[in-house]
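Query protein
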Amino acid sequence: MIELTTQDICLAGRSLQVPFAFEGRFGSDQCRITVEEILRILPGKRLVARATRGDGDGHPLLIKLYLGRSAKRYARREVRGSTLIQESSIPTPRLLWQGETDISAGNLLAFEFLEDAVSLQSDWQATLSRSDHLDILHEAMSMLAQMHSKGVIQRDIHLGNFLRVGKRLYMIDGGHVERQGSGPLSSSDSIANLAEFFTQFFPRYDPLIPLVFRDYQRERAWQERESELARLDNALSKQREARKRGYLRKTLRDCTQFACESTFNRFVVCDRRLLTQDMRKLLSRPDYWMDRGQNLKRGGSATIVRVQVGRHDLVVKRYNLKGALHRLKRAIGLSRARRSWVNAWRMEFLGIPSVKPVAMIEEKVGPFRGRAYFVSEYVAGTDALATIKTSREPNDQMAAISSLLQDLSDSRISHGDMKATNFMMSERGPVLLDLDAMKEHHDVISFRRAFRRDLKRFMKNWRDRPELANQFRGLLADLDA
């Protein structure tokens, strides 16, 4: 068993290997903690893990190890929040003990570990039916109403902080739980907190909100006024926009989800979950891998190649520079690879099916950019133009594309090159490709103008098949209007 000190844990960052052990102190008692599974890590700040106490009976614990200058403050906040949840008569894992680490450089909390716990987030992702989604939201709303009625608010409110064990629902993560005043939470604070909760869901689930909000109003003994729902809708729009901006900024910096490296000559960012040794080799020598891959498109402005990296089937798109003038133009503005990368994560945030982003590379000299690469998962299938024109029963496929276009319209997003060949018909439905010209509009007039151009370009694909063109016109009539 590897023995580590608090300093070792800090220096190891994300490369900690389990199992390992470290010394903890609880008052005058010293004991050995064995970490078996890391659940979350913020290097140099916090470690959340499943562990056992070396001198105990071997029962699993959930430990939270706080590190750095703010360790004591964050540990106190966690204890205070856990107490507030309990005082709201809401089940939460019991705090068993608290102490320090070997050199008093860290604060340690040990909680009851909930065996066989399943988060509501996992339940949500595993279910497809509207009624099941409603049941999950009803459960969460009931717990939130109970907390709000006691004046308690969870600032980091998402489905992952609700755990189900059997038929009992628990709330976790007291570090973001606060009390607001001495009485029930005000209407304004309640609605703001509910808006924070609903921002985690894709906009397509917004029709469920009025149904569960009525339950919340009844549990809080509020009158069911439409004005309250309008306030929630307005707050949700603002919260969602703020959350989206923060999420997209995160895609270009080093954090839990993304590995980012910026030097004088290169800028590289990769989905950390896919950052294997083979992926590092691809990112360091993309042209080498492209020369040995399967050509999908070789043009002047872009070269697209399919490559196999370990178990991952990927597509590398290199944005070429065609001459001195083109090089100068691209050196100053945002690269097309960066636009594709950010737009792909924008689609991910909104739940609109598009290529799955993996990595982005920019060659540069100081602030001046050169060639750039966008790496995404390979999408198996045929494009919409070929699929629909050769299908005997294209109704479902056409309806799925129309639904995707509706999602884009609802989010005020224009594509910029809406050819039917930029829709890949996969097993999971249509997937949107070629995102470097995509734009999210904040002005309604500019969006309508751009989206009409998109629809006009899309309809050109069906000129030789008037029956398909007429069917699409019917499906897209509301969007065109």
Residues 226-250 form the longest helix (25 residues). The first strand starts at residue 2 and ends at 3.
